[in-house]
Design brief:
homodimer, 343 residues, Hypothetical Oxidoreductase Yiak, Chain: A, domain 1, 2 domains, seven-stranded mixed beta sheet, globular
């Protein structure tokens, strides 16, 4: 298995070879590696080949960092100019964070930049600077309305980051019942999906993962989850003048300019709340569990534990992805050698 | 049945008699009547006796409108000074809306004011002024963590308001599976509750509504709904320095100062999005339904339809609530007469 630093070096090299400047290649790599470390492989290095393919196809600009326009003193509108998601987003968040002490709250509305990846990444970065963050982004229409049969709404994740001692509270969840990645994973393994996850292309409930790939995922939490996912998409679109519903392109394909929006809201918390919130989370963690063997979990705890366990260790990257990334980096060692690295 | 204007006049008189100035009495009454009109009786006039009892008990100040402090140019912190919820909230929203054209986004963080009532009310008010709104508030701990057995978290509603043509998109939902009001309603009628709604006082699943009253409500949408409800509560607490979890008081009782927080975020949308969003909602409304007899519903549509149907009509107020409100207003007609008004 390749080590953390093997992967880091190789991924950066692959991005640089595609024309991404060193600092931006490092940031994009950091984001994907963080997802691996936190156990969110769906947002990890398997995404790198598409990132590079989009550059090669000319729909992503490896040099763009976003054009900033302060539409109000506390509202930064960003034209991502088809730049890499984390590059445009971090540049915007840095500008917003700089203005935050004077404003108390600042909103960032981005459009026309590529997939942001795992939103928890940004929530953690901001929490480390003592900033409370709300983050929203939009995906291609993959989710059916509650009571509908067709994919009309994005998986539309929300992230909430709140500074807390000893570690920040970070939630990052999609408003779909599951990710499309998980359905693909079931299809690849030939395993059925549980009832309630998805509809087929005709809009009928299915447990056939392959049929579900051509259909629609359920919103999480029935009518309420549908209302939230739709509400978040409208909020993003209203602030960013970005694409809605079935018009969204560019986070799942390799040949369309990305036209979705992203919204971040940064807030200055009240003094001393990081301690109080940390203490309260501990009370919650030790409240009586339903199952004595399963203590009450705080959202984000599992990702933190996975991260702590994996940091410094080898990363169990699927062999084919590692092979692809090495090829993209220009590493021409024979494939036989690579197979030895497979888990 | 009393007419809309009978109720309005009587409720205002009851509030004025308790020392609430005319304009504030009108606003508090408007909020409660709006809830009745939209079919949300749980947030309607049944709340009025408690509002007045809190004033009588000295825990609500009928004259307070909130002390404003701009902690940043776009962050208004409000000490509610134990004022009435809608009075403090609308005063704060007005101040924020005034600054919005210059700021582009403004956050309001309120603490120490009474129950805000139905958040949709504020979202609609702001949408009518072309403002996008996110609203959060916190309640007493009534909800158990996913995997827990004890009520530790509020029902923590979120509201999303987005201007759209011909009518705004307004979502207002609690992060609990049901409201405690609905469980009380089942208990009063001697009807069991569905499995999955609640735990009893020992933390065991129950379908006995009376047992559930002493227990805990489930979060909506399992682990994801739990994560959101908790995340919203931490966000509010971090921005307002307000009470958390089991320390929250004053929205369900009549003798404790209210110590929860409320957060509103106001945004200026991009030009032309109200038309685009309205058109998209219509596409969604006409997308294929699961059940041909049940068109796809947009969240908020049902409340709007109920409102349109009820406006100008009589309101089916339970006789005992109408009797209470009349008594509080100083109307001393005999109870026999009142009984004639009962539905």
């Amino acid at each position: 298995m390749p080590s953390h630093s093997d992967i880091e070096r190789t991924a950066r090299a692959a991005l640089r070879r595609a024309g991404v400047p060193p600092a931006q290649a490092a940031l994009q790599t950091e984001l994907l590696l963080e997802a691996e470390l936190r156990g969110t492989a769906s947002h990890g290095l398997l995404r790198l080949p598409r990132v590079i393919e989009r550059i090669t196809n000319g729909v992503t600009d490896p040099l763009a960092t976003g054009l900033h326009y302060w539409a109000g003193e506390a509202l930064l509108r960003v034209d991502g100019a088809q730049g890499l998601g984390p590059v445009v987003a971090m540049q915007a968040l840095d500008a917003a964070a700089e203005r935050l002490p004077r404003m108390g709250s600042v909103t960032v509305a981005i459009r026309n930049c590529d997939h942001l990846g795992m939103l928890a990444f940004y929530a953690e970065k901001m929490a480390a600077r003592g900033i409370v963050l709300l983050g929203f982004t939009v995906s291609e229409a993959l989710v059916h309305p509650w009571g509908g049969r067709r994919a009309m709404i994005g998986t539309n994740p929300i992230a909430i980051g709140v500074p807390a001692e000893p570690q920040p509270f970070v939630v990052d969840l999609a408003t779909s019942e599951v990710s499309m990645g998980k359905i693909h994973d079931h299809a690849n393994r030939g395993v059925p999906i549980p009832p309630g996850w998805a509809l087929d292309a005709a809009g009928e409930p299915t447990t056939d993962a392959t049929a579900a790939k051509a259909g629609a995922i359920a919103p999480f939490g029935a009518a309420k989850g549908y209302a939230l996912g739709l509400g978040f998409e409208l909020l993003v679109s209203a602030l960013c003048a970005s694409a809605l519903g079935r018009d969204v392109r560019g986070t799942l394909d390799s040949d369309q300019p990305c036209n979705k929006g992203d919204v971040f809201i940064l807030f200055s918390p009240q003094d001393g709340m990081a301690q109080q919130i940390g203490a309260w989370l501990d009370v919650l963690r030790h409240s009586p569990p339903a199952d004595p063997a399963q203590p009450v979990r705080i959202p984000g705890d599992r990702a933190q534990q996975t991260r702590a366990r994996r940091a410094g260790a080898e990363i169990a990257l699927p062999a084919d992805i590692w092979t692809q990334i090495r090829r993209l980096s220009g590493d021409t060692e024979p494939a036989e050698k690579e197979a030895d690295h497979a888990p």
